[in-house]
């Protein structure tokens, strides 16, 4: 594919983030598949906790973040799992976005956990994306046991790395899909309009 741009949004603020390492590997695979790529690292943004009474333009760098996501043909969301769900920095970033950034866009999901598979974090992100009428890739990447899954910036398990690589390739492969019909959740999500 040519002229496809894939953005990965990292919901981890840790310096030694396995989430960031995994997203970088997914982006390498997307680049190998012919896409331009960028890592959007939430550590680099000043975004306050979401307040519905505050416009996105008055919310630090939320408008800059939204603009970068709008320019992507596909987005890969990456998060550590905290208390069975996804990380609050990612929640805040997504709350400042809406249909303009996600509707009819291909989204890939990646979650990391210190213990067993981060399935609930992936499920929660899938629900959020459906409410924004995004088309979420059926393939998702889960990175369990993060302390042993990655050594430096290398995956210790080739099968696990392959799942992450496949996510990056699928983001490119399905970037131009035209989803139909809208989801029930998106029809009910009036708060995502006009962000």
TrEMBL record:
InterPro entries, sorted: Flavoprotein-like_sf, FMN_Rdtase-like_dom, NAD(P)H-dep_reductase
The cofactor(s) it depends on are: [4Fe-4S] cluster
Pfam families linked to this entry: FMN_red
Q: Which GO terms describe its molecular function?
A: FMN binding; oxidoreductase activity
User: Which residue range or ranges hold the NADPH-dependent FMN reductase-like domain?
Assistant: 5-146
Gene Ontology annotations for the cellular component aspect, listed alphabetically: cytosol
According to the lineage, what is the superkingdom?
Answer: Archaea
Enumerate the PANTHER family for this protein: CHROMATE REDUCTASE, NAD(P)H-DEPENDENT FMN REDUCTASE LOT6
Q: Which family does it belong to?
A: Belongs to the SsuE family. Isf subfamily.
Name of the featured protein: NADPH-dependent oxidoreductase
């Amino acid at each position: 594919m040519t002229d496809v741009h894939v953005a990965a949004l990292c919901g981890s603020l840790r310096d030694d983030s396995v989430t960031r390492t995994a997203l970088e590997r997914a982006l390498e695979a997307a680049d190998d598949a012919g896409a331009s790529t960028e890592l959007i690292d939430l550590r680099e943004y000043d975004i306050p906790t979401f307040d519905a009474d505050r416009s996105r333009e008055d919310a630090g760098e939320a408008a800059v973040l939204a603009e970068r996501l709008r320019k992507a043909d596909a987005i890969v969301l990456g998060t550590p799992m905290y208390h069975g769900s996804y990380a609050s920095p990612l929640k805040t970033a997504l709350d400042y976005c809406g249909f303009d950034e996600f509707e009819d866009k291909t989204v890939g999901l990646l979650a990391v956990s210190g213990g067993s598979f981060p399935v609930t974090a992936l499920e929660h992100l899938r629900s959020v994306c459906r409410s924004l009428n995004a088309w979420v890739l059926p393939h998702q990447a889960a990175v369990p046991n993060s302390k042993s899954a990655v050594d430096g910036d290398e995956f210790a398990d080739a099968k696990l790395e392959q799942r992450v690589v496949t996510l990056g390739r699928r983001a490119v492969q399905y970037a131009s899909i035209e989803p139909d019909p809208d989801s029930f959740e998106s029809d009910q999500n009036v708060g995502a309009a006009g962000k």
